[in-house]
Amino acid sequence: MEKLPKIAVTMGDPAGIGPEIVVRACLSPQVTEMCEPVVFGDPEIIQDAATRFAQPDVKVIALEGPNLPDLASKAPESKNQLFVVKCTDVPNSELRPGLVQPAAGRAAAQSVIHATKEVLKGNFQAVVTAPLNKEALQLAGFAYPGHTELLAELCGVKSFAMLLYLPPPLGSPRKTGLAVAHVTLHVALREIFDKLNSPSVLEKITLLHQFLRRLGIIQPKIGVAALNPHGGEHGIFGNEEEQIIAPAVVAARERGIEAEGPLPADTLFLRAVQGEFDGVVAMYHDQGHIPIKLLGMHRAVNVTVGLPIIRTSVAHGTAFDIAWQGRANPESMIEAICLAARLATSPAT
Where along the chain do the CATH 3.40.718.10 domains lie? Predict the structure, then answer.
């Protein structure tokens, strides 16, 4: 039987829904049929979440230190076992569900850092991250806007992008879903015009093209969004389309990438959903996030492209308002782990 890839799954902010969706996803048949998930975080917290929200007979196997390399030759002995790598130093007594806390931010960051380093060593084939809270992360002393920037620094790369991928719904004739890459990310809207440039647009087109190729699309079709209303109307509403975006699209086409744009964003996503494009390049965070989350909030997957490792995540936050209440939907986490396993077993192109 073909060996399943081992996937490192981080706990996320323990005050949020991370532990709940992690245990429910890691124990789901969809995930265990595709990979062997190993959680990075606090074994006591994960055991509590598994007992309360998954299966009462789940047994967490705690691992740390020198035992970790042995995972390469081990798999859970039964479906109710879950490996957890202990990598946090936050006393559980300090944690309060549903609240922004430095202790929780520190635990989330430690899980990401430890898991990423193990993937870089080759001990795991991918990392899947549960949601963290950006304010808690900052309070804990980690000055990053979010996961994406932290992972880029850990991996030593400067060319990367956040991509949202929406798998096709069950029964859909569309087999490849829809992917959206973002040129700018966690910045104030007023800063977007200063940060946008042709090289960055071209970079994101290229990274999206490479991701879609890895999904098995031989010649992906990419739609590039305009920044201004109506695509700028030839300079009436702004000239970023003509001076920044259009040259990047031309350069991409010269590289053999089938890109089209800049296209008005208010109709581009409809055209993509109808099958005209396999992927879209959005100019800023909400331009890409809003349509994808509207189309499939709980199925969407966050992917960081441009890293030397595979990283996927949920496309939602910590949901403090429903944390530790048994109400969290694990579907996005299930999709994230399954996509990571799929990418881990497909060759890079």
Answer: 1-157+307-349, 160-298
Residue with tokens 């047994």: 59
Asked if the model's pLDDT at residue 102 lies above 90, the reply is: yes
CATH of domain 1-157+307-349: 3.40.718.10
Strand partners, 179: 165, 279
* Dihedral angle computed from the Cα positions of residues 282, 262, 193 and 281, in that order, rounded to the nearest 10 degrees: 20
Gyration radius (Cα) of the chain, Å: 20
Give the integer Cα–Cα distance in Å for 127 and 114. Answer: 10
Confidence of residue 66 (pLDDT cuts 50, 70, 90): low
The pLDDT value given to residue 221: 97
What gap in Å lies between CA 272 and CA 270, rounded to an integer? 5
160-298 is a CATH 3.40.718.10 domain = yes
Q: Sort residue 208 into left (φ over 0), alpha (ψ -120 to 50) or beta.
A: alpha
Considering Cα of 277, then 279, then 282, then 287, what sign does the dihedral take? Answer: positive
CA distance 270 to 278: 12
Q: What confidence score (pLDDT) does residue 94 get? A: 75
Least confident of 120-124, 142-146, 221-225, 323-327: 142-146
| C-alpha atoms less than 13 angstroms from C-alpha of 324 in its C-beta half-sphere | 14
Is pLDDT at 333 greater than 80 in this prediction?
Answer: yes
Output the pLDDT for position 69.
53
